[in-house]
Amino acid sequence: MKALKIILAGFFAMSIFCVWCPISHARVASSTGTLDMTIGTDVKARLNSTGLGIGTTSPAANLHVMGNARMDQLIIGATQGSSNLHVEGSMGYSFENYSAGDNTLGAHTLAFADSSSGNVSLTLPSSDNHDGQIFTIKKISTSNDLSIKSPDGTIDGHDLLFYSSGNFDSIRVLSSSNSWYLMDSMNEPSALSLASDNLVAHYRFDESSGNTVNDSAGAAHGELMNDFSFSGCCIDGVVGKALSFDGQDDRVIIPNQSSLIPSGNLLTVNVWVNYIAPMVNQYTIIRKNNTYDMRINTNQKFWAKAKNEVPADSAVALSPVLPDSTWMMLSFVVDGNSVDTYKNGELMASDSHDFISFNSTNADMYIGDADLTTTPGPNNFFGALDDMRIYDRAFTAAELLELYNTYR
Questions:
Q1: I need a labelling partner for 15 at 20 to 30 A (CA). Which of 39, 60, 133, 151 fits?
Q2: Model-level pTM greater than 0.70?
């Protein structure tokens, strides 16, 4: 019995010594092929033949972190290092290829844009969920164009990053504080200053709830009327979300603002339109009563009017028949000598007219309807509108075509 006590005392002392002594190497083995690290019954990490999963029990890579990870120092391929991340050897990256058409970037932060068969359009993920993340995008063909846009709005102040044909481009963007920023670019993108110069009102229709229509260029904010709400009336648009109108009583009212009446004789209204036929009445796109007006009439033609202050006369341009149930960019331009209508950057109709100045009026502006007093209105729009812009300058045909191409 005395000998047993001596043995136990010695084992206990050795255990205490081993707890405190430094151990240079350790080996942990599993006979099942899976090693779990748990707190209670909650598995926090799992190591199996695929890799190490932290925050997940099904790792899909050598190191798979679900959630956030914090390390003071990570050393790979060596036993010591002089930086927070020290890699001795090579590093490999997974990537994804994107071809012609509209694409949304996925989980891979390295993307190849193959524009050999057509223009490539890439939409970044929402910056809300990717704070601090860097995407690297490489254009791997000199043919056709590459455009990059954000669902959150602009990228470093640009509506789009546009890279024309003829170059191999490499672009890096960073997400920070709910915005995307351009870090570097092999070639300068088309900054699209034309899309922001003299912009007096800009309605993106990207709100996710409520009934306030924000003017991202100024203070001419509006309101959705008659139980019309962003929470149930948004669809996928050309740029982010679009506002869908029911053709009955959906409308937007924008209280009168002096900025909505151009100070001279120049105006451009640009909007993406997707209307639904057949039509019983004409569809109002936007109307500032006795100043300017855009509609699609019952013959499915784009109708635009501007009214002079002195003399008090009007000019009207009427386009050929428009296709329905498809997105198109409609533009209404007053350049002092004529009123012109464009579809997708191409001139459709023109009415020559000497324009002195726009008729001043205290009337509110409407989008999707012409008359707030009648429900249902005789001119309620049926379909969707996206990215409406009002400028106090006249776009040229070349500028409108460039603007159209950057969105497609």
A1: 39
A2: no
